[in-house]
Amino acid sequence: MTSADSRTFAVRHVQLARAAFAALAALMITFSPDHSAAVGSAVFSGFAIATGLVLLLAIWLVYPARRRWPAAALGGISVAAGMAGGLSPLRTVTGYFVIVIVWALLSGIIELIAGWRGLRGDRERREIAPGVADARPAALVGPRSESRDAVVVGAITILLGVALLFVQPAYALNYTIEEAHATFTLTGITIGVGLFGGYAAIVAVYLGIAGFSPRPAESDTAESVTAEAPASADTTPQKDSA
Segment Disordered: which positions (predicted)? Predict the structure, then answer.
């Protein structure tokens, strides 16, 4: 069994990697003059695949066995969405909205549920054996800071999906800038790609701050004390019979 001391990577490294890829996606969209479906799908595809691979690697490198399901689910959905966004026939306005909306709603709900269960687990003591309560500190059962970050990121991701649902893909508005002596067109895909860029920027800042923030206990230390909890429950003083 891998103990906390022998682990090279921790939750903060996963957060920092996700923040880096989100920041890269935000910068590419911000400084790109082309906000077409092809460009938006390409940026989203790279972001989703890179994020998904980080989460899938974290299954073995970071999380203990009982806490791997959120990373597995989020990683699988992100990689699948990224691969779909990379297909040329799906790099259309409709394809962009469908792929990003489905990804945002599914991954957001999963991450929100995982974070909520972690926060709820901080207040509840589970039984590690019949009649024996878990004696570990609450931070080792489910780190509150990590669960709170998952709730926030999950909620932001769901908001992205909901916001894209209200954007009309066929929307087009012509406007003129007199100083530039030029006429431009604001389209639905421009708004959709811009919303994803704004989402990526917010997630990058939040996860970057979370990754650099000090925390009292990393979740990886939970494995090292699992075997000690049952033994500590039996160390009750016995009275000598007179």
Answer: 216-242
Tell me if 143 sits within 8 A of 215, measured CB to CB.
yes
Amino acid at position 66, single letter = R
The residues pairing with 186 across neighbouring beta strands, listed in sequence order, are 173
The token pair at 161 is 């999906």
**Nearest Cα residue to 104 out of 46, 188, 48:** 48
**Going by C-beta distance under 8 Å and a sequence separation of 6 or more, which residues neighbour residue 132?**
230, 233
Amino acid identity, position 90: L
**Nearest alpha-carbon partner for 69 in 100, 77, 154:** 77
- Cα–Cα distance between 120 and 86 in angstroms, integer? 38
Q: Spell out the residues 6+ positions from residue 28 whose beta carbon is closer than 8 angstroms to its own.
A: 43
pLDDT digits 0-9 by tens, 89-108: 999 999 999 999 999 999 99
- What does pTM read for this prediction? 0.78
